[in-house]
């Protein structure tokens, strides 16, 4: 296969809402370039891009799929992404390695919820972006309304390169950069290139002038030329458009019918001639803040943006060559763990098809197989210059589930399978709750969860069930209490004997030392689950030998690991051991541990025990017109609104919400706002549970 230099490689990612036609557009581009002889369709489950069984079963893209096409001596790498934000990890990782974002809209719908969500990430990465209004020949197409929705999203820097027109029953496209009209046959394909009709010349010229002005605004030299000549030629306009795209201040708008192959060739021509390449973008940054120059003379650095596990192949690792070149049998260092990886196989991937190559140069996207130590977000670098490229920051999960193997013999297999799923998709998080004794799976939404379940069943052969996770409550006390306990056991020979008298009090920072006790020793224990135990030795007269105090404290700590109320951790208590008895023969460590535990438990239950619940800082971004419904829902979840801020057409609600009340919030929020609201949360503090809630929890 031909090896392209960095100036002739363009990396584009297709993003957009569900059913906007991204996969069909990718298929048509491959067909236009002659890389496939027949176009597949999503309905027939035979497109190059959607090749996974789960995609065939669900009828939509689940994975971001790298493809490539060739057009007029340029190589265009395409990444076709899912349109549902449950799979936002696939979209974000693709945006991260793209040089240009192609945002596809349906001419029937314009900017949709999915488009808005994805645009926030495009804007964050400041990537060059163009818009494609698809399905222009559909009976319900509304091009002008779709264009207005783009301007509402990105502002007045959206500029038409093309607009659709029907002439004598034939679908046409007016191109105001070329100042030509393209007329298509009903079957699409190569158009007839014509002059713009007289009744469209005034509008076309107006749009051409607007495009010239927008192009000139982004380059001082072009601005001077524009002032001198009053216009720019086509080549100068291209330079200005490219500069505007690089500045993230100009967003060209095209129109196509991907299904009927209208306008696809012109779009590819624009990507070739105008859209930025990797070398045009700002240099990548290492984790240490150093610039990584996109040059083939630089030391090799590959950034792994995606991994996929396939049963018949093992792990496929997708990467972008950020600098230098990579060749077969190169030995590279994984800067994350220091391990050496050998590139034994090198491919360009088109869906499931692999095309072997001997090398790839800077700016290109490729894949390799069966790396042992490398996962998504890792950097593979030349031993001469081991660097780590700034990793992708994935969004935090929105739903949590406790996950169990249906067959208990599969518990270990389930855990290993979930680790593999996480390594491929970092938006899936796996943790083990020691206190709840549950494996916790966190992901992006219900559809994401369904896909994980499908993968466990069909790829790894594990049947799982999912439940509401237990909340990590804490237990503490609200007043002081004293107790004593005698442990006595006789069963022939030496027995067991210990008596412990103690008092407990709530602990807080900077409190005074306990009054009325002769303090002989003090130990502060920072508890691994938060809070403190402060343990005082107040024994007078040697009624309990000094060597038994650690055993008493051990007994107290054992109770604190599984509190009497709901078996949650106890925190923020101080204990004064002030009296007791021992036996010269029968007393031992185990006896005092048991006595200490029982005395502490009894005192705890008499000290007005209180449940504490984790409270989260919750930030919800809601369209202005939907704030009322969301606030009503939040108040029903015992949320305390801390503040409201405005952000364009959105309101940002900041509130404190008990974690126990957030189960199902992601699904309900999506329903209340048609998917337009987003949220993030982080732990704030532990707060007392209302009395009625505590009563219910304890009874359960």
The percent of residues in helical segments reads 25-40%
Please report the total strand number as a whole number: 38
Give the overall silhouette. Answer: elongated
Global Rg: 33 Å
Strand order of the main beta sheet, please? Answer: 2-3-1-4-5-11-6
Distance between the amino and carboxyl termini: 67 Å
Class by alpha and beta content: alpha+beta
Counted by DSSP, the helix tally is 16
Spans with pLDDT under 50 lasting ≥5 residues?
A: none
How can the largest sheet be summarized?
A: 7 strands, mixed
* Beta fraction: 25-35%
Instruction: Give average pLDDT, whole number.
Output: 92
Q: What is the topology?
A:
Blueprint: E1 9-15, H1 22-32, H2 53-58, E2 65-71, E3 74-80, H3 88-97, E4 100-106, H4 113-125, E5 129-134, H5 143-154, E6 158-160, E7 162-167, E8 170-175, E9 180-183, E10 192-194, H6 198-217, H7 220-229, H8 234-246, E11 251-255, H9 264-273, E12 284-285, E13 291-292, E14 301-310, E15 314-323, E16 325-327, E17 331-334, E18 340-342, E19 347-350, E20 353-356, E21 359-361, E22 365-369, E23 379-381, E24 399-405, H10 411-424, E25 429-433, E26 438-443, H11 446-458, E27 464-467, E28 474-476, E29 481-489, E30 496-506, E31 521-526, E32 532-537, H12 549-560, E33 569-570, E34 573-581, H13 589-605, E35 610-623, H14 627-636, E36 640-647, E37 650-658, H15 665-672, E38 678-688, H16 691-699
Parallel strand pairs: 1-3, 1-4, 4-5, 5-11, 6-11, 28-33, 32-34
Antiparallel strand pairs: 2-3, 7-8, 8-9, 9-10, 12-13, 14-15, 14-23, 15-22, 16-21, 17-18, 17-23, 19-20, 24-26, 24-27, 25-26, 28-35, 29-30, 30-34, 31-32, 35-37, 35-38, 36-37
Helix pairs in contact: 3-4, 6-7, 6-8, 12-13
